[in-house]
Structures
1.
Amino acid sequence: MTKPSASASPKPILVWLRRDLRLSDQAALAEAAARGPVIPVYVLDDETAKHRAMGGASRWWLHHSLAALDADLREKGSRLILRRGPCDKVLADVAEEVGASEVHALHHYEPWWRNAERAVGKVLDLHLHHGNYLAPPGSVTTGAGTPYRIFTPFWRALRDFMPPPEPQPRPHTLHAPGTWPKSDRLADWGLLPEKPDWAGGMRETWQPGEAGAMKHLRAFVDEASAYESQRNLPSIEGTSMLSPHLHFGEISPARIWHAVADAGGSVDVFLSEIAWRDYAQNVICQFPDYGGTSAREPFDRFPWRSGKEADAALRAWQRGRTGYPIVDAGMRQLWHTGWMHNRVRMIAASFLIKHLLIDWREGERWFWDTLVDADYASNAVNWQWTAGSGVDANMFVRIMAPLSQSEKFDAAAYIREWVPELAGLSDAEIHDPSDRARPKTYPKRLVEHRDARERALDAWNTAKSAR
């Protein structure tokens, strides 16, 4: 008799990772792990993203998030394979090296990722799963079957789909392939700033990775019921600070929902903020160029300022030297930590657009480079909401007064932390320092609020009437 030959080892399955850098509640990883040996692959693909390649702060976060994920995988007997280049070519090369033909990944909705998915699907057997949003973008529609453009009805409709499915645990085991493909060294990618190293404040503030995300979630659970009363107060930091962890997929929105949904109080306000992230993805699915094109026609001819004075004003805003303490505090917090309090983001964005009359796209680009949570959809939707140029937006004529906003939301301690030259001023003076109290080291206001308001309204009337 002939001895039966041993069955061939099962083919390894690639898991293509992007903004889903976690082991738990990761549908693509779970499905692949249930079917055979798994090879997790992260591809740094700046070529497909082109001008939307990650900015400096995001690249810093990515380095540490990938390092954390690799450590988590190694605890399971696996590892993270790193490659650089166009995703379709790189994944095809990896598949050929190890004899794989199947790739699993989570859906992504940024226009460049949708292009990449189509390209990968042409060369490999690509299986896409959901899991980065509360509900798959495009699945929540009006009675006529069309996508929502306005947030409030979208949120009401999304509630009918909630709660999301229970988050799934990490796979118990990850079977290793017989042979691992070659991998780049993370240090060779140059994601970290060196000359100069401007990331000291980010290292002090953040712990990228799944463990850091869970740490922030545990800290926030006890505060979630008071979210509405605290979220607008930058001095006490009443927000969750989960946004960068969500952006990089170190935690799923389903896990956050189930952790806080029963907190009571004003937790629904927080849940609506998680839903806003879903809403933003639905917007860019309808308008892929939303990050660079105004949705409302009058803004196509808006008389934005340009030239040397406007450039100088933009630089002053970027550096936190506008003479408006709440704006400067926010911009300095952003530069130091890669993050800014949500209320202050609105104030700083409104100031750039309406006080300085600088195109919202300049602010969007700056945030894209400096935020650790620089999400294409959320960043674009938030900037267009503030400008009044979006499909669902604040009216341009509603011009936020930064000085009164600072006092209303009790930002004195926040200003003292981030604008130390004003730390000696009283609470009565610090929001709007008088000429007598203003230190010589702190700049004068770039423009007076009343003058800025009149100039902005004139510009809006010009844009509306021009044809």
2.
Amino acid sequence: MTEPEQLLTVTQRHTPEGPFVLEVKGELDHHSAPLLTEAVAAAPFDDRGVVVDLAGLTYCDSTGVTVLVTAYQRSLTTGAPLGLAAVSPDQMRVFGIIGLDQIFTFHPSTEAAISALRR
């Protein structure tokens, strides 16, 4: 019997002299959101910043958006810069509709976000 496919993975990594990266792949919904919530809570929100790489995000419901807002709130509390990278056009449309395009900082790729946060 094979294992069921995991709907979400979050890979955490430090970059040399740069921000901490959370790479999110799969479906972010009310079932899988606790995984990203734990990763956000464990991430070192410091002066180097945090990048949330959403290139592999295939679905995001309101619970997932709430987790991203929680990351934003943590960045405000700690003073750590936060960037969202590689957001799909569909997800950008959702962010625009709900007004989150006004609070998040978006980057076309993780590399661009890392470069921007290193400054």
3.
Amino acid sequence: MSQPPFYVSPEQVMKDRADFARAGIARGRSVVVLGYDEGILFVADNPSSRSLNKVSEIYDRIGFAAVGKYNEFENLRVAGIRYADLRGYSYDRSDVTARALANAYAQTLGTVFTQDQKPYEVEIVVAEVGRTAGDDRIYRLTYDGSVSDEHGCVAIGGDSDRLNEALLERWEPGQSLGSAFDLAVGVLSLRAEGEVPGTSIPLDSLEIAVLERDRPRRCFRRLTGPVGTDG
């Protein structure tokens, strides 16, 4: 006698997929993206930064940061570059925006989450530096294609709720690059501490890049060595 088919409600399927994706993302080391007076700073806790980048350039004024499974977010990064190049070539370079790219990523992530056997274990940030600080854009995308427009700063990966709480308490518009870097390192160091960081992450474990507002056309630049601090 054949057994009746095993039934799982759609709600349970979606919950299981979400739990699976969140668990994978939480195991990854974090990335902080935040605005400063002359652009947008990316700082990633990434001991493998020389070979496996979490932070990359997408287009003239757009950067990309990700946590989770490297092969999955690397596929998204490459797809984003192709999307931006095609759109810029077909129309105009000014038509390539972080908002349009975030919408494209959201469609891909949402489709994978609902239709594929396994969701992407990734969380990404798409950031665009504007001509003024008020024009800067930072979008956070989660595994299910949800998009949030972040105001000035965001942390992804690891215990992101706690990191974002600490980041929002201390971030202020118009900070210098040195102050923003110190804040990012302090927040990333919370990964193993309870409140105020005890031991900062070693500099050689950090991947650092900026989108500089006043650079001609291509605004993305990687930083190596100490970042200047205030005082």
